[in-house]
Design brief:
Shape: globular
Number of domains: 1
Helix content: 25-40%
Order of helices and strands: EEHHEEHEHEH
Strand order of the largest sheet: 1-6-5-2-4-3
Number of strands: 6
CATH topology: Leucine Aminopeptidase, subunit E, domain 1
Length: about 170
């Protein structure tokens, strides 16, 4: 598996699937979810809400609407919109997203910094949790993962988490 870090708006990527750090209700009002809904259309939120409630540690795959990707993987980090969460929720959501990617045979997926905005998880803790789950994931899919954010400091945090994981720190 290849892992790359990129500075970009996640909703612009032509990957197989984008991971949405969702809430259990499927409401896509703020954060990454809100951006995905605004750029991809209300159909994404409607599909997520139809699958709700989605447990933390589970994930559902929906249409991507007008986004350039094929699908959206909704992996809840919180039960209700705007809740403050712990890094363990990020870990569970990342694991669920990776499993959903394998089950759907998505070759290329993109992860944002889950839980760092509305969930208030420090970026270094979130990045470490995501990278550790990627390293622990031993299934055939995804083949390529992009860790993506538009903020240079978060991109740097992803890069540091990858470096530390490669050095087993």
């Amino acid at each position: 598996m290849q892992v790359h870090v990129a500075r970009a708006d996640i909703f612009t990527l032509p990957v197989d699937a984008i991971v949405n750090p969702a809430n259990s209700l499927g409401i896509m009002g703020g954060g990454i979810g809100g951006q995905l809904r605004r750029h991809g259309g209300d159909v994404i939120q409607q599909a997520a809400m139809a699958a709700a409630p989605i447990a933390i540690g589970a994930a559902v795959v929906t249409t991507a609407g007008q986004l350039p990707c094929r699908s959206v993987i909704h992996a809840p980090t919180m039960e209700e919109p705007g809740q403050k969460i712990a890094a363990e929720n990020v870990r569970r959501a990342a694991r669920a997203a990776l499993i959903a990617s394998d089950l759907n045979q998505f070759k290329v997926i993109a992860f944002p910094a889950m839980g760092t905005d509305l969930g208030d998880v420090p970026a270094d803790e979130a990045a470490r949790a995501i990278v550790e789950e990627i390293r622990a994931h031993k299934r055939p899919f995804p083949e390529t993962i992009y860790l993506v954010d538009s903020h240079p400091s978060v991109v740097e945090t992803f890069e540091e988490a990858l470096r530390n994981a490669q050095q087993n720190l």
